[in-house]
């Protein structure tokens, strides 16, 4: 029985500009251009009685208009449905577009709806999403990434370290994978010295190294006592990660580039990583993330989800083993709420659902939108 069916949805695409262009190892090797903006796909779902849920997905560089087009096309499948039946609705949405794949862009578009349905379910229960899922903790250790890009000059990087520690973050992650390995070690040494044991330290190579370079660099970095080395190798080199993890003491982290549970399963069954890093939007939503988390839990992996702390704080708080959340302030202007930091941790707020509402600024950055209802799809109301 559907007591309160989905009546209307708004789907929109917004471009979030970054304060300055960002480069990691993928840019230094010429594979990608510096990142200047992030495409945000929003889904706002409303039921007949007026209950609401909001979800989002994103793309860095190409893909935003494709996400929007796919969401606009499959969205009508949800009208008249019971928003509580998230598993069934995920399957329905994915199979509506299965011809173009059950992972990748199509499921990243579905993710926005899936996340909105989870937000709605938690709001209906009047619980933060972490509590709805069965929280393991009320606050999650968090680390800063956005101050440590390869494009950041060392002096600025060191200032960011101080600022992050003062703001209450519990860790600092810096990018490595500079064409000159000595430059990586020089920056790492300077940052480790500046941190002086106050907070945790991690590095992220963004798939820059081959197997030999990864082993050499990982060994050189062992004395720094890193919490993890992230993406030392190509994201699909499951065996290479496993061999590296065997050879060194520093834990290995990876998974942000993987687009579904099937790929994460390979990472898990090959024993490639110590920290698994799924991204709820990239793997197809919270429903899919929970599948990855369930597998990771049985393998006793630690969890450090990628990006989008607004979603991942809840998912990391619900995970039973050790977890971290990545602090990125990039999405701040899109939402009216801010995450609270305390003693190196990000605190799950009392607000129900994800605990976020879209800001006026997000509306202003919207470049395309449509309203989907029983009467069909109407474009252009943003
Ligand atoms: Mg990363």
From TrEMBL:
GO terms, biological process: amino acid catabolic process; carbohydrate catabolic process
Start and end residues of each Mandelate racemase/muconate lactonizing enzyme C-terminal domain: 154-251
Residues that bind substrate: 24-26, 60-61, 173, 206, 326
GO molecular function: galactarate dehydratase activity; L-altrarate dehydratase activity; magnesium ion binding
Presence of keyword Cytoplasm: no
Gene3D superfamilies: Enolase-like C-terminal domain, Enolase-like, N-terminal domain
Cofactor note: Binds 1 Mg(2+) ion per subunit.
Coiled-coil regions, chain positions: none
Key words of the record: Magnesium, Metal-binding
Residues with site note (Increases basicity of active site His): 279
Binding-site positions, Mg(2+): 204, 230, 256
Catalytic residues (UniProt): 175, 306
InterPro entries: Enolase-like_C_sf, Enolase-like_N, Enolase_C-like, L-talarate_dehydratase, Mandel_Rmase/mucon_lact_enz_CS, Mandelate_racemase_C, Mandelate_racemase_N_dom, RHMD-like
A Pfam family the protein falls into: MR_MLE_N
Cofactor dependency: Mg(2+)
PANTHER family membership: ENOLASE SUPERFAMILY, MANDELATE RACEMASE (PTHR13794), MITOCHONDRIAL ENOLASE SUPERFAMILY MEMBER 1 (PTHR13794:SF58)
Protein name per Swiss-Prot or TrEMBL: L-alanine-DL-glutamate epimerase-like enolase superfamily enzyme
Source species of the chain: Sphingobium jiangsuense
């Amino acid at each position: 029985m559907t007591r309160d069916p989905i009546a209307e949805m708004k789907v929109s695409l917004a471009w979030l500009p970054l304060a300055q262009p960002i480069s990691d190892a993928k840019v230094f090797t010429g594979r990608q251009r510096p990142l200047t903006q992030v495409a945000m796909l929003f889904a706002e779902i409303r039921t007949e009685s007026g209950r609401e849920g909001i979800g989002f997905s994103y793309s860095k560089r190409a893909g935003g208009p494709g996400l929007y087009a796919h969401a606009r096309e499959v969205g009508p499948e949800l009208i008249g449905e019971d928003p509580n039946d998230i598993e069934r609705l995920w399957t329905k949405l994915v199979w509506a577009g299965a011809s173009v794949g059950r992972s990748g862009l199509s499921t990243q578009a579905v993710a926005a709806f899936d996340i909105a349905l989870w937000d709605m379910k938690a709001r209906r229960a009047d619980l933060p999403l972490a509590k709805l899922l069965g929280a393991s903790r009320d606050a999650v250790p968090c680390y800063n990434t956005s101050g440590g890009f390869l494009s950041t000059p060392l002096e600025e990087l060191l200032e960011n370290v101080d600022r992050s520690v003062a703001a209450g973050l519990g860790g600092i992650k810096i990018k490595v994978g500079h064409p000159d390995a000595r430059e990586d070690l020089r920056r790492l040494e300077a940052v480790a010295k500046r941190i002086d044991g106050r907070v945790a330290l991690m590095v992220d190579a963004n798939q820059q190294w081959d197997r030999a370079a990864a082993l050499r660099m990982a060994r050189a970095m062992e004395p720094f006592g890193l919490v993890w080395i992230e993406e030392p190798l190509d994201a699909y080199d499951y065996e290479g990660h496993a061999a590296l993890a065997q050879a060194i003491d520093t834990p290995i982290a990876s998974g942000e580039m993987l687009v579904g549970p099937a790929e994460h399963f390979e990472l898990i069954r090959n024993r490639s990583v110590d920290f698994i890093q799924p991204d709820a939007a990239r793997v197809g939503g919270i429903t899919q993330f929970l599948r990855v988390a369930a597998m990771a839990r049985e393998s006793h992996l630690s969890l450090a989800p990628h990006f989008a702390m607004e979603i991942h704080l809840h998912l990391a708080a619900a995970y039973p083993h050790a977890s971290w959340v990545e602090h990125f302030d990039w999405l701040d202007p899109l939402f009216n709420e801010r995450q609270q930091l305390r003693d190196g941790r990000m605190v799950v707020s009392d607000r129900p659902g994800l605990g976020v509402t879209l800001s006026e600024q997000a509306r202003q950055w919207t470049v395309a939108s449509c309203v989907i209802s029983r009467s069909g799809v109407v474009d252009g109301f943003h």
